[in-house]
Every structure is written in C-alpha cells, then in structure tokens.
Amino acid sequence: MAFSRITGLGFYVPDNVITNDDLTQWMETSDEWIRERTGIQERRYFEYGKDTNYSMAAAASRQALDRAGLTPNDIDVIVYATITPDYFFPGSAFLMQRELGMDGKPVIDIREQCSGFVYALSIADQFIKSGMYKTALVVGSEIQSSWIDKSTAGRNTAVIFGDGAGAAVVSATNDPQHCILSTHLHADGRFAEELYVKDPGSSREGRPVSQEVIDGGGHNVYMNGNAVFKHAIVRFGEVIQEALEANGYTAGDIDLLVPHQANLRISDYVRQQLGLAESQVINNLQRFGNTTAASIPIALTEAWETGKIQEGDLICLAAFGSGFTWASALIRW
Ligand code: UT7
C-alpha cells in the first residue's frame, strides 16, 4: 500500500504591498475597522505585466520542486486550485504546465474556493494511494485584486482579499509513519449564493458578457459575511474533529493547525474550541489577507521555513469557504 507525503513546499507573493490605509484611497474604510473585524493589516496585489495567476503558481512550484530535489519532469500530474484563473478556459494549470515545460503531463483544474488546496491535496493523495501516479504538484493560486470591487459598495469583501500562490510536491512513500493520514471533504450547495460571483454565467438570456450584465454588478463578489462567519466557526471545528477521530487522536495530539486564512477572529475561535495555544496555530493573514486557495500552502510553507514543523509532528490543515465547502487533512510529518 502506497502512502503520500509532502516533500517540498513553496510560495510566491507579489512585491506590491497594500496596507489598510492604502485602501482608503478607493473606499470608505479604516485601518481600525479592518484590523478589529479581520486582523488583516496588509495584503499583496499583483503587478500587471509582471505577475499572472499561472506565473505566481510556477514560481511557488519551482521553489517546492527545488526543495523536494526534483525537476518539473519528475511530476506525474498537476492539481491546480483557483477561482481566479487567467482565462475563462482552459484553466491556469495548462498555462503553468507550459511555463514549467511539462508538456504531455496531465493537469486538473479545480475550484472549490477557499477549500481548493485541501481538495487538491486530497485528489493527489488518492492518485498516489491508488498507484496511478507517484509524484504530484498541488497548487493554489489567486489574483483577487483585479476582481474585487474597490469602491465603498464592495468594501465588505475588498478589504479581505489578497493575491499569492503556494505549492506542494506530494510524493509516494511506503512509510505509514510520515504521510498524509487522511483527508475529509464536504460541500453544501444550499448555500452557494451566500458567497459567490454570479457573472459571467452561461445560464442567462443573452450574452454572458454585455453592458447590461456589467451594469447589473453580478461580476462583483457577493458575500453574506455574517452567514459565512457563523457556518465557518461550526464547520472548522467539525471537520478537524472528524480528521482526529478518523485516526484515533484528540485535539491535544495536534502539534500545529494550519487553517485557511479567512479572519483572525474565526481562527481564534477555532483555536480556543480545540484548546490549542497561540503558538500552535499559524496565522499570517495579517500580512497577506485572504488568498483563497493559496492561503493554506502559503501558511504551511512559512511554518516550515520558520522551523515550526518538525519531523514527526501532527499537522492539521483545515478550510472553509464558498460553496459552502469545508475540508481537512491530517498529516504526520
Ligand atoms: O474565505 C472565505 C470565507 N470568508 C470568511 O470567512 C469571511 C467571514 N465573514 C467575516 O469575516 C465578516 O463578515 C467580515 C469581516 C467580512 C465583515 O464583518 P461584519 O461584522 O460581518 O460586517 P458587516 O458586513 O455586517 O457590516 C457591519 C457594518 C456595516 O455598517 P452598518 O450597516 O452597521 O452601518 C457595514 O457597512 O460595517 C460596515 N462595513 C465596513 N466599514 C468599514 C463593512 N465593511 C466595511 C469596511 N470598512 N471595510
């Protein structure tokens, strides 16, 4: 029986730092409001002409590959999560594959929003466990800054999001002591419209992109923040407990929790629910905001780079987002 383990991590964020004060040039908001409600202090915005969704993913992937001691040609499959692709189709995985010179290797583009990376990791884990592939490149990459409505009308979502990419190389191993122990995926489409971008959608009268559609504002992110918040604090706890129970552990066994970086208040709530110390939970949204599918691989990479992950540690990844989706992965490092 094969298992899979993460053998290399990398991330890329654009150089362009946007502070909370910078946002006040576009919308009525304040550093105080954003810090108090979310914990975010700054985020990165991509630089047009320099960064693309796939170039950021490629940069993160190159770093992950280097650290795994591999080259792009060692990869059997790419699983790429994003809700902000470069093109409507084909997906950004194709563009990153071309960028890395991996022509002919299969690519899988998925969405699954803020849970995208954990879903992608789970797909890679199943491919490896089944024996179909030996090495996978799992990516989360987002450019939110070109999509969000930076006027006051869009401020409840615009202040949250940032741009960036993270990547993990996932390799086959025979060692059940150092591997991805399990992944747990959930979705509930009854809440699809609580956090969504409606347009351009295909199921409409007339062309998906027209002045009428643009004037309707359906291309902007809509979020019922309160509903998202309330579901998030329940689902995070549930899906972490599910992962622990599936492997015979309790919260006290967790060495490090790497949650999706949505809101510091959500993260603190979950931490307290589990009885974890502040040092056991990775929070970097203060510097990067919510980078959707990229947030977990960026946070995981930073945790690894700063020595917060040691061999043998029990690491839990957990996510919640639009869909609604929620997911976890338990890893014995
Ligand atoms: O990654 C996917 C998962 N996403 C999440 O988990 C996000 C979950 N939701 C949240 O984190 C919170 O809902 C937010 C931080 C996004 C918003 O906080 P909130 O307390 O739910 O704010 P609200 O939207 O209910 O708005 C409260 C007030 C409103 O003013 P009134 O009507 O009370 O006068 C808003 O107009 O705050 C106002 N407001 C702002 N004021 C200054 C909303 N956004 C802003 C802003 N700056 N950026």
Automatic annotation (TrEMBL):
Residues 261-265 are annotated as: ACP-binding. InterPro entries: ACP_syn_III_C, ACP_syn_III_N, FabH, Thiolase-like. Its EC number is 2.3.1.180. Its main location: cytoplasm. It is an enzyme of class 2 (transferase). It catalyses: malonyl-[ACP] + acetyl-CoA + H(+) = 3-oxobutanoyl-[ACP] + CO2 + CoA. Homodimer. This is Beta-ketoacyl-[acyl-carrier-protein] synthase III. The gene is fabH2.
